[in-house]
Design brief:
The complex is a heterodimer of chains A (151) and B (197). Chain A has 151 residues and is mainly β. Chain A is built from 2 helices and 10 strands; from the N terminus they run H-H-E-E-E-E-E-E-E-E-E-E. With 197 residues, chain B is mainly α. The chains are: A mainly beta (151), B mainly alpha (197).
Chain lengths: 151, 197
């Protein structure tokens, strides 16, 4: 057996001894229906990930800022056991606009904001996308970001 | 799967079908072409699973990572400048997401005490419903693979997915020119461990 053949054999052995769960590919196919609306995508202007501020070992906090369409969205993520606390501030909202949290495989959630545009929500999962909506029109979306406060 | 030839003397960056700027039809897939997207999923789904497991994740965490990678591809795939490097993008994204899960897992395990730890330890092998029929020779190869150094396991798993050499070099912090020799050494270790002639 030459090296190329061995490499192919070991790949087959890995697949045979640790096959992916049934339904994994079907889940991946479903990801195609994820609504991406790339024209309303915000620019990520700040991410503390990888910077010293996010390195405190006892309280991992990650700060993110997104900007676009005259709006800014500031987020702070912190780990709460298995969950993640997302605290946010949306600046530049019109009175009838709303903010929604989208996560793969879940229904979108409309967030309760105070008069200053602040909110907080505890969630689980790996990824989230926040959108600012004017009725059903997306004014701005952050695009998927990792909910893990680190690394 | 195609296995790349040894290119130890070549620094030409290996990409699939060099003349085709989008061999996976990534642009069509991201534009909503179900057939193109499904073809990409079937090409890479089990590979991404293997990469996630290779980072030491249990099956449940690995499944979450796979989901993240596919949603991130749909969400951010437009920013992949050279679609020929799709495999490298997937590999890098899988590794990053897996490491994030791994760190959070450690954190929550320490929060939960021994209960969480037991759950993680109980997790590493597939349940009977997921177990495919593996031959004895495959079991032996698997054990030999698991006994390799982490860098070897990562390198081999990137090679069998046709990840471009320059992406491998970046991910594993090694020179493009040393990949061929490292590949040979890792496979020699594998032969010895599996007691292959």
């Amino acid at each position: 057996m030459n090296d190329d053949e061995l490499l192919a054999e070991v790949k087959e052995a890995i697949d045979a001894t640790d096959p992916p769960p049934a339904g994994l590919a079907a889940m991946a196919v479903r990801a195609l229906t994820w609504d991406t609306e790339s024209e309303s995508l915000a620019e990520r202007t700040y991410d503390s990930k990888g910077q010293m501020a996010g390195m405190r070992s006892d309280t991992a906090v990650r700060d993110l800022t997104f900007e676009g369409s005259g709006l800014s969205i500031e987020l702070s993520l912190s780990a709460e056991g298995d969950h993640v606390l997302v605290e946010g501030l949306v600046d530049g909202l019109e009175p009838d606009w709303s903010v929604r949290l989208h996560q793969p495989g879940r229904d979108p959630v409309t967030l309760q904001l105070d008069d200053a545009g602040r909110f907080d929500i505890e969630t689980s999962g790996a990824l989230a996308d926040l959108s600012v909506q004017s009725n059903d029109r997306v004014v701005l979306r952050t695009g998927l970001f990792s909910l893990h406060p680190e690394p | 799967m195609r296995i790349l030839p040894d290119h130890e003397d070549s620094v030409s960056f290996l990409v699939m079908d060099g003349d085709n700027p989008d061999p996976w039809n990534l642009r069509s897939a991201l534009g909503g072409d179900v057939d193109a997207w499904t073809a990409i999923v079937h090409e890479f789904s089990s590979t991404i699973w293997g990469w996630a497991r290779n980072q030491g994740l249990g099956r449940e965490d690995a499944e979450d990572v796979c989901q993240s990678v596919w949603y991130l591809l749909k969400d951010r795939g437009h920013s992949i400048e050279d679609p020929r490097r799709l495999a490298g993008w997937l590999a890098t994204t899988t590794r990053r997401e897996a490491q994030a899960v791994s760190i959070r897992g450690k954190r929550s395990r320490s929060d939960l005490g021994s209960e969480g730890l037991d759950r993680q330890i109980a997790d590493p092998t597939p349940g009977p419903e997921d177990r495919a029929v593996a031959t004895e020779a495959q079991q032996r190869l698997r054990e030999a693979f698991d006994s390799l150094k982490q860098k070897c396991r990562e390198l081999l798993s990137l090679l069998w997915a046709d990840v471009a050499y320059r992406d491998i070099a970046e991910m594993l912090s090694m020179a493009v020119g040393s990949i061929g020799e490292t590949r040979r050494r890792c496979l020699a270790d594998l032969r010895r461990e599996a007691q292959l002639a």
